[in-house]
Amino acid sequence: MKIAGIDVGSTTVKATLVDGDTILWQDYQRHNTRQAEKVLELLTRMEAEFGLSAGEDRVFFTGSGAGFIAPLVGGKLIQEVVAVAAAVEKLHPDVSFVSEIGGEDMKTIFFKQAAGGKSKQVYMQSACSGGTGTFIEKAARKLSVTPEALAVMRHAGLTIHKISSKCGIFAETDANTLTKGGVPVEEIIASLFDAVVCQNLATLTKGNTPLPGVLLLGGPNLFFKGLQEAWRHHLAKLWAERKVALPDGDLIQIPQQALYYASLGCIEIGAAQADAVYLGTERLQWWIAQGQHEHKGKEGNAGLTGDADDFKAFLEKYSDPKRLGITGLAAAVATPRFDEPVAVGCDFGSTTGKAVVLSASDELLFSCYAISKGNPIEDAKDIMRQIRQAGFTRIGGLAITGYGKDLLKDILGADAAVVETVAHAESALHFCPDADVICDVGGCDVKIMILRQGTVADFRLNSQCSSGNGAFLQGVAERYGVALENYAERAFQAKAMPTLAMGCGVFLQSDMVNQQRKGWSADEIMASLAAVLPINVWVYAGQLNNLRSVGRKFVLQGGTHRNLAVVKAQVDFIKSKVPGAEIIIHPYSGEAGAIGAALCLREHLREGTPSRFRGFDVIEGLVHRSTTNEDTICHWCAVNCKRTFIDVQLPGAAGRPWSKVPVEPGWERVINGNTCPKGLIEDVNEMRVVKAGMEEGKRAYPNVGELVRAKGFRAVKVPV
Length: 720
Known about the structure:
Blueprint: E1 2-8, E2 12-19, E3 22-30, H1 35-50, E4 58-62, E5 76-77, H2 80-91, E6 97-101, E7 106-114, E8 117-125, H3 133-142, H4 147-152, H5 168-180, H6 185-203, E9 214-217, H7 219-223, H8 225-241, E10 252-253, H9 261-270, H10 282-299, E11 301-302, H11 308-318, E12 342-348, E13 352-358, E14 364-371, H12 376-389, E15 395-402, H13 405-412, E16 416-417, H14 420-431, E17 437-441, E18 446-452, E19 455-462, H15 470-479, H16 487-492, E20 496-497, H17 505-517, H18 522-541, E21 553-557, H19 564-577, E22 582-585, H20 592-599, H21 602-606, H22 616-620, E23 624-627, E24 644-649, E25 667-672, H23 684-700, H24 704-712
Parallel strand pairs: 1-4, 4-5, 6-9, 9-10, 12-15, 15-16, 17-21, 21-22
Antiparallel strand pairs: 1-2, 2-3, 6-7, 7-8, 11-20, 12-13, 13-14, 17-18, 18-19, 23-24, 24-25
């Protein structure tokens, strides 16, 4: 008699088939949300290749996605922690502590000696992405790190930066800040490994001490070398702090079968049970072909496309925003005039860099994109290289905005560093002067500006949660293997879609996994995500429950609105709340911030004021280095921010010979990672330099008022 153990996880399916004590076959595959289809494939292989027989052999299931599949094939469901514990007790009877990290959950098990055997304490976390494999993979994708490279990246010997481990969304924000500060990708990945281990030890040990005899299970623990090093580092540190006696031998084990312990545990428990007789795949095939669709029809909503005529009208109006008849910025000219000074506007955002070139008469001469490479200086080089190659060599003015503006202003020689809200408002009002509301949905934030008579009267910003922004949609598309430019096409194919809960991006991810278990496809879930985005933007992030009160003319911009599925959902939602609303998509939605920055240079360009722009050759030849260590920590308050010093080689720079991290003349320093203005002063040495400069200024230009006051109110000695 053969026994199959199948672990249907949130991202993968693991299967083991045994005959007695002999393992006949094991396999591990990503299911890409098609859990039932993947289980059918594996069962079919077991039948064809190894003789798994209906009515004779047995099958047991575990994992977050197994609940509705097990009854269809006659399988019995076993709780996954129980299954893992059973496999560990059989294969590793001396283990004291187990940590299993999965795609979207994590588990710890403490084994303690007790009267009559061992007792178990189990703790599990599945409601948050912090500390899971998805937590690492999502950040790695954003940093353009391939799975192969991620597997061999290290933790040992690298500088560790502070990354919030309590929430995957906050961690993404911290990683984004480090990226824009020029911190090397290797150090950010090492910091992510560190955060995962800290999160597991902080939340899933509940004050207990993991004793020597540690077993690490799950894909992340098996595949990521840096994560293994982080475990060894923190456990050794913990044991030293708590004075734990360490026996000889290898105290931490990572078995080669670390992926299969849940399926092996199913088999261990199932060997003594006879009530899970395999029924074959007939009912599972029915569910895939028909049953799940009937279920969707009862539970789901209609797709994004809705009525065919309405959808056709939508495409005619919004598939090309330039058809809306907006005037104000001329389209790119056929033959750019290279002989006149131009204004360059750059928007260094969280995921991309954008640039536009405007003429003195506000003609859009050129625009370009650059995917962030994880270093703002390299992003700036890429942008400037594209502008130069397009033939624009006479730069009359440079304005920058976005996350990278403060770091790059002096390095590039920008004439203006424009606050993002100002840049986006300037751009939208240039195209639509009578707008009531401007909504900008970017890669990592959502901005809503409410206007009165052409002036911003109220403002809403959400930059601490991924729900409703473009990076969340991009991450989901990558997870399903869908190119971002094909997102709308795939979402429009869905004739029905599930209902997802509004709110936190982490809970939204959990809700998606739950919908996957019910059989909803990737296309249908992507459509549902587009549908819930406006609710997250206006209600959750913007706190605007009465949308009608803010006006009737809406301008939508930001790179996320290049996705027509998002635009369709936005138009439907706004019109349902504000009948008769006029909704305009910015004709250059992705470049809106860069256009707004360039428009702020109008007077500068027309008056012929010399630009501070350093020139293409200087920027192309920029040499930079970053330092983050004990000497860069800010000690002006109790927070002790771990700052990064970015030193750039620039002609005429004074250097900082007095610094704890000295740099010679010819180098300019930019400080990043500080949470308040105090952090821009390096340390006491710089304070002395600043005070000496102030005293020198007082001597050269004395305060006459102070001199008169001192002389007029001086103490006079009266003779006795």
